[in-house]
From TrEMBL:
Residues 1-22 form the signal peptide. Belongs to the bacterial solute-binding protein 7 family. It comes from Ramlibacter aquaticus. Gene3D superfamilies: Bacterial extracellular solute-binding protein, family 7. It holds the Pfam family DctP. This is DctP family TRAP transporter solute-binding subunit.
Length: 336
């Protein structure tokens, strides 16, 4: 059912599933790419580039309509809409897939990756491929991984300098069991909430704290409703570009190949864009008045030690072989 806002503003609504065969005038396909963040965001820029690349590689036979600002909702809603074929493409957090596919909780393991290169190697390698393959039974095709980034903590009540400073913080987390357990283990009162409700919830003091990558804190203006930023880098957040399997399977192989090539171009662009903007975001957040602190080495150690227990619950969800394969790949990279 279209929302009042969609109807009033004449915004696109989640229509009946379209089949790739259902080409419009002149045989042009117009699949929709829904995403949660603003047009002027790393998601928006990369989604538009993806659309351009698809148009170019299909000589205009496939014109992707890029629709942001959570018009179709955020992550969980976007995943369901794509699985039902109500939209053809989306980019969402892997974190909100865990309810459907527990193996994705591998990527929510605290301090799993130490730097973006490790994340790229695992996500673009056999482990990332195995996770993408698990989307099929859910009516989705996993194309590529984009970068949301390393997540950091912001608060409105006090800076977090020591493990004890987490105690009692009312923190918003993503709709993800590992994120919930992670912050409960740190002594906070953690509660999940969809991203498009976060700004208002912080403004209205429903929460004292939240955690997101620097680019997201800046582009979603969360600094307006928070005072302190602690550079915890406690987990790497990946985004995944997905397609409706029903729509995808009706495409000729040449178009599937063209779209996959466009997705890879958008991936490399998005990661470079996000990393460049993340570095700038730290300066902009400081200029915007956030009080920023790093954790001391000993406190970072105390926090990561406290979170080791989280891995005990991730193993059974992910399946030990995938966790062991990931840790072996990372150990091999770190020995180089
Ligand atoms: O929910 C969060 O904290 C996120 O990081 C969400 C993502 O940014 C989300 O994809 C926005 O649509």
């Amino acid at each position: 059912m279209p929302t009042r806002r969609q109807l009033l503003l004449g915004l696109p609504t989640l229509a009946a599933p379209r089949l790739a065969g259902a080409a419009g005038a002149a045989g042009v396909l117009r699949p929709r790419f829904g995403y949660g963040l603003a047009d002027d965001s790393n998601q928006g820029r990369a989604a538009r580039l993806f659309a351009e690349e698809v148009m170019r590689r299909t000589d205009g036979r496939i014109m992707v309509e890029v629709i942001g600002n959570a018009i179709f909702g955020t992550d969980a809603k976007l995943q369901a809409a794509a699985a039902e074929g109500k939209i053809e493409f989306s980019v969402t957090s892997t974190a909100t897939l865990v309810e459907w596919i527990p193996e994705f909780s591998l990527l929510d393991a605290p301090f799993l990756f130490s730097n973006p290169a490790e994340a790229d190697a695992v996500l673009d390698g056999p482990v990332g491929d195995q996770l993408r393959a698990k989307l099929r039974p859910r009516g989705l095709v996993g194309l590529v991984y984009w970068e949301n980034g390393f997540r950091n903590l912001t608060t409105s009540v006090r800076p977090v300098r020591r493990l004890e400073d987490f105690q009692g913080l009312r923190i918003r987390v993503m709709q993800n069991p590992v994120a919930l357990e992670t912050f409960e283990r740190l002594g906070t009162q953690a509660r999940p909430l969809a991203f498009d409700k976060l700004y208002d919830a912080l403004r209205d003091k429903e929460f004292d704290a939240q955690e997101n990558p620097l680019a997201n804190i800046l582009q979603s203006r969360l600094y307006e409703v928070q005072k302190y930023l602690t550079l915890t880098r406690h987990v790497y957040s990946a985004w995944i570009v997905i397609a409706s399997a029903r729509w995808w399977d009706a495409l000729p192989p040449a178009d599937q190949k063209a779209i996959m090539e466009a997705a890879v171009v958008s991936r490399d662009f998005e990661r470079a864009d996000t990393r460049m903007r993340s570095a700038q975001a730290l300066k902009d957040l400081k200029a915007a008045g956030l009080e920023i602190n790093e954790l001391s080495f000993s406190e970072a150690n105390r926090i990561s030690n406290r979170l080791n227990r989280v891995y005990a619950h991730i193993g059974p969800r992910v399946g030990l072989p995938l966790l062991v394969q990931t840790q072996a790949q990372l150990a091999e990279m770190r020995e180089r």
